[in-house]
Design brief:
Elements: H1 17-27, H2 36-49, E1 53-57, H3 60-70, E2 78-82, H4 87-94, E3 99-103, H5 114-126, E4 131-134, H6 146-155, E5 159-163, E6 181-185, E7 198-202, H7 205-214, E8 219-220, H8 229-232, E9 233-234, E10 237-238, E11 244-245, H9 256-266, H10 269-287, E12 294-296, E13 309-313, H11 322-331, H12 347-353, H13 359-367, E14 368-371, H14 379-396
Parallel strand pairs: 2-3, 2-4, 4-5, 5-6
Antiparallel strand pairs: 1-7, 6-7, 8-11, 9-10, 12-13, 13-14
Helix pairs in contact: 1-9, 2-9, 3-4, 3-7, 10-14
Amino acid sequence: MSEDRRMLPYGRQTIEDDDVAAVAAALRSDFLTTGPLVEEFENHFAGAAGAAHAVACNSGTAALHLAAMGLRLGPGDTAIVPTLTFLASANAIRMTGAEVFFADVDPDSGLMTDASFEEAISLADKYRREIRAAVPVHLNGRICDMRSLANVAKKSNIALIEDACHALGVPSAGANEYSDFACFSTHPVKMIATGEGGVVTTKDADAAARMRKLRSHGMVHAEGELLSREEGFENGAKRPWYYEMHEIGWNYRMPDVLCALGISQLKKLPRFLKRREEIARLYDRLLAPLAPALKPAPRGNDPHGLHLYAVLIDFEKLGTTRAKFMDALRAEGIGTQVHYLPVHRQPYYRDRYGERVLPGADAYYSRCLSIPLYPSMQDADVERVVETLSNLISKAQ
């Protein structure tokens, strides 16, 4: 494939020389696993998100699981999760032993609304489910109306965990004004990259401390936390090797090497966001003539993370299928993806909870397609994507 027709993926990391230098310096340090850069990364992240506390871990999935454990969810509890999301939003709830009840979403934005949240609460009540939590998902970078969702949650004493994996850099995501926890991903296609990684933010200092223990097998070392004086102490002094586990935890640690990359990337977050916005505005202008066959998913009036640029296409009206359309784009060097297959359709959840009809999610899923958006794209790349889309739609009409 020639340089001007190189593959444009739907998303990719932007790694620069200073990022490489930061990782190289960490590799030459005394710490490759947990060291001083973990706390430094957490402090930088908390500042970027406007959070009181940030807890780093090794994936967005781990972040969601730690948040669910922070709420002490377990067997007998249920959490409401919008079905239009990645598997992890629901799986993290199940990993605690709690159950999931899926909510529908708006057919155009893909977001859980106060109306679909209230409907899910009402339906769950009929199934005699005790709802203790809900996981609003900020899709593509667009933020749920957290004030409205929080008002609904308050009436039923429901805690909120924001799945903000698409929304780093949005001022209201991560500050926990309306939620107990907010969870982020630093996967390469997200706003910043650490290879793999995740972060939980919270206002609750005790919950943050507990999550830090849980991310490291649940181990405790501090003298004041140890329970066994006979095992842990000798002549009144703590034995230097001694530790205890009071509850089971996991190896969810993020190593110093990845935190070094994260610290470097966080410094670029404003620039990355600015470039994403420039690309999105160019797409908006160039794609306008393709309506109504193709329309950008609505972004609303609030600040947007612009993690993904999603378009809505009526493939049936075009006389084609999404798979054929994506294959034709790939043949021209344009990578795309679908975000997401509604989770309630997955065999595991269908077998566990039975068939559900969630028309808003089905309508969004049937039309959505994520097209390339990442900071290192050039304007000419955007023009190439739009030209290819225009040609395919013209042939189909």
